[in-house]
Amino acid sequence: MKTTFNKFVLVSLLLLIVIIGFWLSYLHYAGLNLYVHLNPVFRKGSLVFFNLFNDWKIVERDKIIFYFQNPSVVENQSEFIERREKAFKNIQAFFKIDLPHKIDFFVWDNREEPLAKFKIQLGFASPLDFSVYSFYKQTPGHEITHIFSHHLAKDVRKCRFINEGLAVCFDQTNMDKLSVAKEYMKKHPLGRIQIRKIWQDGLGSLPDDFTYPLSGAFVKCLIDNLSEDEFKEFLKDQSYENAKRLFGDKLEKIIGDFENRLSNILD
Ligand SMILES: [Zn+2]
């Protein structure tokens, strides 16, 4: 009788441990999700409640609050911060809008930990709550651009080709995106690229290594060929159909010239 009772207690305890384990891991995951989605006013509260970033180093600057893992692989944090503050100013100078909150900018040493802990794939921006979740090797401006472009209008209709292209275009690196796309095409013959198709497919099935620089180069081409007002009006609805409605034949010429520049490299 006593042995049966002991077994019952043991099994119950094990069951309890498993349930508590699941609950804690859910809480950990849900904690970040809550943090991502809660209204900014309550975010700090949920942060503290879930102790998610308690041991992180926090550096509050003019436009951005930085969160570094502690210790962090970022050796020169001052330079890291300066580059992103400068990126913020450059991007803001283009969009000419103010953000109502500072950006919370999280910097991870690796992509594996947040994936395992929170099931999040770095890096990405969460424009609704003005947060950037980044891997330390990311460009200074990409995710910050996502936040600005989201707040250009009340309801921006995004299209992946343009939305990512915009972030690549404003990543604040000196990389020549068109050359990168061309280099890719030299190594991986893709035939003549059809911008309209990739645009309408939302980047389509081609690899990011090609479509990201391609989209960045194309957005730069739009900026160079449209007036500032035209470009910003278009950004509110980034679909091909809207661009066609706004710019008509001019759009077809821009696309045709761009496709020719791409294929010229192959000759
Ligand atoms: Zn992006």
Helix/strand layout:
Blueprint: H1 2-37, H2 40-50, E1 57-60, E2 64-68, H3 77-95, E3 103-108, H4 112-118, E4 124-126, E5 131-135, H5 142-150, H6 160-169, H7 177-187, H8 195-200, H9 208-225, H10 228-235, H11 240-247, H12 249-264
Parallel strand pairs: 2-3, 3-5
Antiparallel strand pairs: 1-2, 4-5
Bound molecules: zinc ion (ZN).
Tell me what the structure shows:
By secondary structure, this protein is an alpha/beta fold. 60% of the residues lie in helices and 9% in strands. Helix 3 runs parallel beside helix 5 and helix 6 packs across helix 9. The structure holds zinc ion. Zinc ion binds at residues 142, 146, 164, 167.
Descriptive labels:
single chain, alpha/beta, Glutaredoxin, 12 helices, 60% helix, 9% strand, binds zinc ion
Strand order of the largest sheet: 1-2-3-5-4
What small ligands are held by the chains? Answer: zinc ion
Radius of gyration: 23 Å
Please, how many helices? 12
Order of helices and strands: HHEEHEHEEHHHHHHHH
**Approximate helicity band:** 55-70%
The 3D shape can be described as elongated
Overall domain count: 3
Which parts are unreliable, with pLDDT below 50 for 5 consecutive residues or more? none
How many β-strands, per DSSP? 5
Main sheet overview: 5 strands, mixed
Q: How much of the polypeptide forms β-strand, as a percent range?
A: 5-15%
The chain-level mean pLDDT equals 87
Structural class: alpha/beta
Q: First CA to last CA: what distance?
A: 87 Å
